[in-house]
């Protein structure tokens, strides 16, 4: 397995942490390289990485909790729930935001690279007013949307009556024993055992830990470790936070007109891999690239977190998963990983 991480297994390079969970047990937990180059801090399974878009499954769960508590409905119009939501988006429902079928514009399109102050979730509402239409009528197509998940975080604040980061802490992280996991706000919270992000250049690696959009929480602001994500994975399988029926909704892809699958549920890409349901998500942000692959029926989950831009940890995660997955009866060996498409590769704006 170590050769899969050869690019990260260097005492002078940014690193990676990995965990494989099979049938409720951790069967592999390792780390490679450095979490902090300047301090020469080695990466460990307890190192906290910025999860980037792996955050979306937590944001979706916060919404599902509110719905399970009877405080929201999936088909509520967002404009009726969230003050300040642009009126031209009046037909966008909460379900559309969860499934990336809202068609709302990407807030990043309105944030210049030279933006002096970081954008926060609340700023996304103002940025959305710069458009006057959706990419498509809500519910008719699919386009990956960080804007949608920033808006979902604002809905959690509005309906939950507390900051999004506190809601996650009180209703998700603390009940699961994820004591170090945090939706990080600079100057408000701290990240224990923090990994810092980097990017390769001609001279090696240079810091690239933050961007103008790194402070938006709902679409990518959680820091966690592979060690603590074991508890998260166990909660998903045991339905500790939301009911089995609710979790099934999250793991069911949206259907578009013409009976076409959007291949996205609530915070998860969904497809089939050799007849097995495969849940997955990638995460790419300034200085971090991550992946999770989960086969719920086989009770197998692989998580790879890295603190560098670039790379394809989802390919590594799949190769590791294949070591624990026996080929379906009569099908022989697995197809080569390089020929097995990922659902996000065909979804507009998924990177």
Automatic annotation (TrEMBL):
UniProt keyword terms in alphabetical order: Hydrolase
Record EC number: 3.1.1.103
Residue ranges of the region described as Disordered: 332-351
Cytoplasm found in the keyword field: no
InterPro entries, sorted: AmpC-like, Beta-lactam-related, Beta-lactam/transpept-like
Enzyme class: hydrolase
Hydrolase in keyword set: yes
Residues covered by the Beta-lactamase-related domain: 11-313
Segments traversing the membrane: none
Any GO MF annotation of the entry: hydrolase activity
Protein name, as recorded: Serine hydrolase domain-containing protein
Record organism: Hyalangium rubrum
Organism taxonomic ancestry: Bacteria, Pseudomonadati, Myxococcota, Myxococcia, Myxococcales
């Amino acid at each position: 397995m170590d050769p899969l991480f050869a690019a990260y297994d260097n005492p002078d390079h940014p690193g990676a942490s990995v965990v494989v969970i099979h049938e409720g047990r951790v069967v592999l937990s390792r780390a490679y390289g450095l979490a902090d180059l300047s301090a020469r801090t080695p990466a460990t399974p307890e190192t906290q990485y910025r999860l980037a878009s792996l955050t979306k499954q937590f944001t979706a769960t916060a919404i599902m909790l509110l719905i399970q508590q009877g405080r929201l409905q999936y088909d509520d119009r967002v404009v009726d729930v969230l003050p300040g939501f642009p009126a031209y988006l009046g037909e966008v429902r909460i379900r559309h935001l969860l499934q990336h079928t809202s068609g709302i514009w990407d807030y990043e399109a309105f944030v210049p690279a030279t933006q002096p102050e970081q954008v926060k979730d609340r700023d996304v509402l103002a940025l959305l007013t710069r458009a006057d239409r959706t990419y498509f009528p809500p519910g008719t197509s699919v386009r990956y949307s960080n804007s949608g998940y920033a808006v979902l975080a604002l809905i959690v604040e509005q309906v939950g009556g507390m900051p999004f980061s506190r809601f996650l802490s009180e209703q998700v992280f603390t009940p699961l024993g994820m004591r170090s996991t945090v939706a990080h706000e600079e100057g408000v919270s701290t990240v224990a055992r923090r990994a810092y992000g980097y990017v390769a250049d001609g001279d090696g690696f240079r810091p690239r830990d933050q961007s103008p959009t790194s402070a938006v929480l709902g679409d990518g602001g959680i820091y966690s470790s592979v060690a603590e994500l074991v508890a998260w994975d166990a909660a998903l399988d045991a339905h500790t936070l939301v009911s089995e029926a609710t979790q099934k909704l999250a793991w069911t892809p949206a259907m578009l007109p013409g009976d076409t699958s959007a291949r996205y549920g609530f915070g998860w890409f969904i497809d089939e891999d050799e007849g097995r349901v495969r849940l997955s998500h990638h995460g790419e942000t300034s200085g971090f690239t991550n992946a999770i692959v989960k086969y719920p029926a086989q009770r197998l989950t692989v998580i790879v977190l890295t603190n560098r831009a670039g790379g394809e940890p989802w390919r590594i995660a799949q190769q590791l998963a294949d070591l624990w997955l026996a080929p379906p009866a009569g099908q022989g060996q697995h197809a080569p990983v390089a020929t097995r498409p990922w659902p996000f590769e065909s979804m507009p704006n998924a990177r």
